[in-house]
Amino acid sequence: MADTSDEKEQLRKIRAGDVRTASRLIRNLEDGLPEAKSSIKRIFPHTGRAHVLGVTGSPGAGKSTLVDALISSFRKKEKTVGVLAVDPTSPFTGGAILGDRIRMQRHAEDPGVFVRSLATRGALGGLAKAVGDAVHVMDVMGKEIIMVETVGTGQQEVEIINHSHTVVVVLVPGMGDEIQAIKAGIMEIADIFVINKADRDGTAQLMSELTAMLNMVPEFPGG
Ligand SMILES: Nc1nc2c(ncn2[C@@H]2O[C@H](COP(=O)(O)OP(=O)(O)OP(=O)(O)O)[C@@H](O)[C@H]2O)c(=O)[nH]1
Ligand SMILES: [Mg+2]
């Protein structure tokens, strides 16, 4: 199949980091348009350079706050950053996504930072596919670090590992359900645990519960 000049131009622009072209493709992926799927096939050979960091945790755990702080810290090291905020239940948490946008607004003027959110338009499985494809788009744009924020709810937690090199799980003290979540499988996917809102009561207890649980699992190969 020969590439049309439009397709060549799209690839060239995305590789040059063109925000409009990349945003349009991500929106088309979200909508599940067939031409977006074929674009992904064409850009795919240019992927594989980014380090993908998955950030998951309960609603309101502080994922966006952490991502925002990490953007600043990666930018200080002159790394370019892509952020994908995934919203699996968009009709109910539209406000949260808006909050993310406002919170990360201070990076909006920085050409080294590209922030997009993805919402469910169809089946959950379709969203998971769109996440992977949107990560590819940011990778081809040349973003060196790509952070994917997802609310940790069942299937979604597990999906995040398929797209991430490093998975960060954000926990909050005093919620009670955190240890349940860990038991329900988060333990297996996490590379890094973050105890956020450590200004709250219960931090020491969560820390010791978490440590006890980590001591029960055998060492991973490679640490
Ligand atoms: N007390 C306290 N509040 C915090 C801390 N970190 C974040 N918050 C607040 O917690 C609220 C939720 O933070 P977000 O970063 O939006 O959390 P999130 O996990 O991205 O939330 P969703 O995307 O809606 O699931 C905000 O009001 C933050 O200001 C912290 O360390 N301590
Ligand atoms: Mg958030």
Q: How would you sum up the major sheet?
A: 6 strands, parallel
What Rg do the Cα atoms give?
18 Å
Percent strand equals: 15-25%
Ligand identities = guanosine-5'-triphosphate, magnesium ion
Strand arrangement, major sheet: 3-2-4-1-5-6
**What name does CATH use for the topology?**
Rossmann fold
How many domains? The number is 1
- Average the pLDDT over all residues and give the rounded result: 83
So, CATH architecture?
3-Layer(aba) Sandwich
The backbone outline, from C-alpha atoms, is elongated
Tell me the series of helices and strands, N- to C-terminal.
HHHEHEHEHEHEHEH
Annotate the secondary structure layout.
Elements: H1 5-15, H2 19-30, H3 34-43, E1 51-57, H4 63-76, E2 81-87, H5 90-103, E3 113-119, H6 124-140, E4 145-151, H7 155-163, E5 166-171, H8 177-189, E6 192-195, H9 203-216
Parallel strand pairs: 1-4, 1-5, 2-3, 2-4, 5-6
Residues 57, 59-65, 93, 96, 99, 151, 196-197, 199 line the site of guanosine-5'-triphosphate (GTP).
